[in-house]
## 1
Amino acid sequence: MEVKYDTYSVLMSVYEAEKPEWFDLSIKSMMNQTVKPNQFVLVKDGPLPKELEDVIDKYVNEYGDVFTVVPLKENIGLAKALNEGLKMCTNELVARMDSDDVSLPDRCEKELNIFNTMDVDICGGAIDEFCDDIDIVINKRITPKDSEAIVKFAKERNPFNHPTVMFKKTLVINAGGYEDYPYFEDYNLWATMLSKGAKGYNIQETVLKMRTGGGLYKRRGGLAYAKHMRHFKKHLLNMGFLNKRQYLYSVTGHTIVSLFPTGLRKVFYKKLLRKKQ
């Protein structure tokens, strides 16, 4: 019998450095969906300042049992925090959301429709990037649409925009969940799932507005980033997702870009890896 999905859980992690107003807007965007979640799993990745706790209390008081708050005694990082939250998700479909981005109102309705009309295990969508003003779009990132194109794209770059993704919980757990590959936790999860036969799909319309800035391009460079990248790509080689030629091509290109000065790397991303609005 074909399964029809009409419920989903939201999975979000927050830590002490998040700005309360961004955090508030992010949660609000998920609770204002045209198809609302019946569960919102919120992981507190370590102790939070009062301002962030106040935001959580506001939504818990308003929505009650919809919110499942998972407190962690110390900061353990995004991958482990998401795994802890995933354990608490009661629905098969889980919508990821970051604590500083803003989902469009019909994001989850569109993703549910994909799961109900197609044979799909991971569904994401396009993002509009903004800096200070949410109405001023700086760039757009659209990833490949169908599963075959997604697998091909994943040999070189991350095939999904992480905070837009809705996925099947059981397949994520079977793939080992989020593993500790700094900067590449979600990319590794998608590659692992795709290598095990999971099918992906990306909505070609914008479903989320992603907050970005100079820090984004700084984080994606330097010797430490290049080292993490090579370690991750070697993992993809060892698991058979990449062949030697693909590994060398990908590592060489990413290493060169990661060693660019931040300003030049920013230009590279904007000119070649994003669509200008």
## 2
Amino acid sequence: MSSLFITGATGYVGKRLIALLDVTRFQHVRCLARTPGPSIPGIQWISGDLLDPPSYASSLQGCDTVLHLAAVTGKNSPATFFQVNTQGTRTLLEAARKAGVRNMLYVSSVAAAFRDQTGYHYGQSKKQAEEIVAAGGLRYIIVRPTMVFGPRAPVFEGLLKLAGAPAIPVFGNGRAAVQPVYVDDLVQFLLAILEHDFFPNQIHGAGGPSVLSIEELLIRIRSACLHQPSRIVHVPVGLLLPGLRLFEKFLLPLLPLTAGQLMSFVNDGVVEATAMRQWVPQPTGLDDMLRLSTIS
């Protein structure tokens, strides 16, 4: 019977994974968190920090697999992204290797594959973390989810705010392709990887069944969730980026979005989800995804 070490279990995907995890399949399930989560039978919370190996190194002993979900997203400084997402992954991997861990399941992001990552420190930090995992000496799989939807999903709530504006602001031409994935489908894929011991030393995508443009997605969200007709206003990205990059140095917490976050409007966010389809053969469709995402 294997043992599992999880980071990021108190995050959005992590909470759902813990809720669906069959702990009886594992000898130990240990979850690293700066603030431990609620008491759950079969879950051992480890108080610690990714960048402080002594706080968790002993808990890695006897664990076969690390499921690495922890990351910072949203509005953060470049230093924070690289410290947590990149250096945190390197530190965790080194501690896992020393403890004799065999496998790493790293949950990255489709943003790591964006062709244009100019000023997108989140995407850059995740790409660097992928490279660290691939060169780390453990059996690994890297999973790149697309936009993750679900009740109170941060990405969905951000798009819902845009869709609810008097006129929907679409940055750029609106033609960037997106492929939202429902949180439970993503979690089922992650659990199937653990169940089938699937560590092929490869990157695999996790995306939903529908591919559409970011403009079409915003229109669908407005229609399905707010029941309002849509009016679109296109905002040239080239006009916004210089100002955002300047103000981010001084007013980052006050900005409604960052220059990096605009990259989702100019890069295609789609994946090949071949392995996911093997274990999640009937993924949640977009209409159901939108309906379920508005349930609080």
